[in-house]
Amino acid sequence: MGTSMDAFLQEAGQAIGAQWVDTRDATLARYGEHTLPAGRRTPGAVLFPDSTADVQAIVAAANRHGVPLYPISTGNNIGLGSRAPIATGQVVVDLGFRMNRILEVNEEICYAVLEPGVSFQMLHDELARRGDKLMISATSGPPHGGVIGNALDRGAGYGPYFDHFGMLCGMEVVLGNGKLIRTGDGSLQTDNRLNWHVSKYSAGPALDGLFSQSNYGIVTRVGVWLMPRPPAARSFHFTFPDDDDLAEIVDLCRPLKLSNFVPTLFRISNDLYAISSEAKNQEYLAGSKASISDGARRALREKHGLGAWQVSGLFYGASDAAIEPMIQRVRAHFERSGKARYIAHEEATAIAPLRVAIESMTGRPGIIELGMLQWRPGSGNSWFLPGTPMAGRHALELDHLGRGIFKKYGMDYIVMHVASARFARGLHVLVWNKDDADENARADACYRELAVEFARRGVGVGRAPVDYQSLHMDQVMPELRETYSAIKKALDPNGIIAPGKYGITVA
Ligand SMILES: Cc1cc2nc3c(=O)[nH]c(=O)nc-3n(C[C@H](O)[C@H](O)[C@H](O)COP(=O)(O)OP(=O)(O)OC[C@H]3O[C@@H](n4cnc5c(N)ncnc54)[C@H](O)[C@@H]3O)c2cc1C
Fold it and tell me: Crossing angle for the helix pair 392-408 and 246-258, nearest 10 degrees?
């Protein structure tokens, strides 16, 4: 095996067309940038395949020449690594630019079959064009994020189909060793693929999970289950006045999810998570290096008519009238606390951060939440993603821990808990000025301390920014790490696909 990048690029160009091999400085600079504390990770080249056969040819050539590849769907993983590779010099395989076809929409059984470049917005628009009978599970992140990239990174939405990886069914994968496999009933040796995207558990080991948050292969096609769009949808919202109300909120949400009375997840966003999408930190702009003061937070809450916490959920039904009694039941449940202030659906549609909840729970991608990236200038953004059992006392203890660490490093505590029956994922958002070296170092140290302190309490993360994947992997038992490596060795013996991702290498 040689190590010549030039020979690899020439071979890749012969396979996919030389015009789809990009080594221009401007392109490499654009693909190397990201919002995390570390410096740029400039790729060696960017390739734009058009088909599974192209991907296979690229992987085969990479194996021959020992060139590491980094696949992306659309590369909109903002705050988690964007489209930059794990290490400088890896060749980005941008699947989104050309492999962005919606291969099938089945409106009878409610699924779509997609190539990796199909974005949430593209799928939404195609379903709308067909009469809006099906809805996507939207994120509240970039509408141009990829449905498959997001699902493989175990991203999530907010409606009943929130578990994006769980809603995938039937994959086509080019393994690191160059072999092509289909999972599930798609693996049967016939051209008939009747059950590929509807049967979740076929005979034998279920391998699909191997391709999420890993570096064992490149996924080139997937079935995605879709929810029928209900005739009506109405949301409900409550604000709570105090930071420590989180404990009571969590205890109020839990029974409504355990019984599945409320079909969506609850979005429990703190003041800054809600308000930062349409405001800037004025204390920071006036020269403060500390976390925003409690006084300024209170003033922002008053100005925006929001609380220390906002709770949002939504019902689907046959009509608004059919839904209303369910909303009244939830309202009575929350108002028993004596602290909740109810905000009705119509009023919430005019409040941007609450409208995000409605849009995401009804499968409409939007850009409102991206505003939080400008809370402070300078484009620094990372996401610390631990979680809490759905018991108020645990949620509050972890809240105090996180709040204290953010404050220690002069970061603003921007948090949303996304709550299901037994567990809530806590989206902790760091937004800082990357151009300020001291602030950049503090943001980095803040994340690292959060990771260490939460893990000490038995709390890992659901997904990690590229800069910290090895840190998290070093926290797990060595036997598990060895197992990940052994699988890597079996499926990608030359370590071609994203070596180092989630700390996984062949050795
Ligand atoms: C304000 C804001 C809000 C956000 N809200 C949400 C939210 O509500 N929910 C959420 O989940 N995320 C959210 N995000 C995070 C992120 O932007 C999205 O998850 C985004 O959709 C990721 O998709 P992508 O196509 O950009 O992924 P990519 O960057 O293309 O890929 C993600 C990862 O998967 C791997 N990968 C991609 N495609 C393949 C493939 N075909 N084969 C093998 N590996 C592959 C990549 O190597 C990468 O590691 C938010 C971000 C911001 C800034």
Answer: 140
Instruction: Compute the mean pLDDT over every residue in the chain, rounded to the nearest whole number.
Output: 97
Residue 77 in domain: yes
Distance 76 CA to ligand 1 centre (A): 6
What's the confidence (pLDDT) of residue 17?
A: 98
**Ligand 1 centre distance from Cα of residue 348 (Å):** 28
pLDDT tens string 44-70: 999 999 999 999 999 999 999 999 999
Q: What is the CATH number of the domain that holds 316?
A: 3.40.462.10
CA distance linking residue 312 with residue 126, whole number of Å: 28
Is the CB of residue 274 less than 8 Å from the CB of residue 353? Answer: yes
Q: Which domain holds residue 433?
A: 232-465
Give the mean pLDDT of 403-413.
98
Q: Give the residue whose CA is nearest to atom 16 of ligand 1.
A: 77
* Ligand 1 atom 6 nearest Cα: 141
Statement to judge: residues 141 and 240 lie in one domain:
no
For residues 353-374, one letter each, b for 16 or more C-beta atoms within 10 angstroms of the residue's C-beta and e for the rest, the string is: bbbbbbbbbbbbbbebbebbbb
Ligand 1 center to residue 304 CA distance, Å?
30
Q: Does ligand 1 come within 6 angstroms of the Cβ of 74?
A: yes
Verify whether ligand 1 is closer than 6 Å to residue 155 (CB atom): yes
Q: Do 310 and 409 have their domain in common?
A: yes
Any ligand 1 atom below 6 A from CB of 75: yes
Other Cβ atoms within 10 Å of 278 Cβ, number: 16
Task: State which ligand 1 atom lies nearest to the alpha carbon of 370.
Answer: 1
pLDDT at 245: 98
Give a yes or no: residue 485 inside a domain. Answer: no
pLDDT over threshold 70, residue 3: no
What ligand 1 atom has the least distance to the C-alpha of 501?
49
CB 68 within 8 A of CB 91: yes
pLDDT tens profile 352-373: 999 999 999 999 999 999 999 9
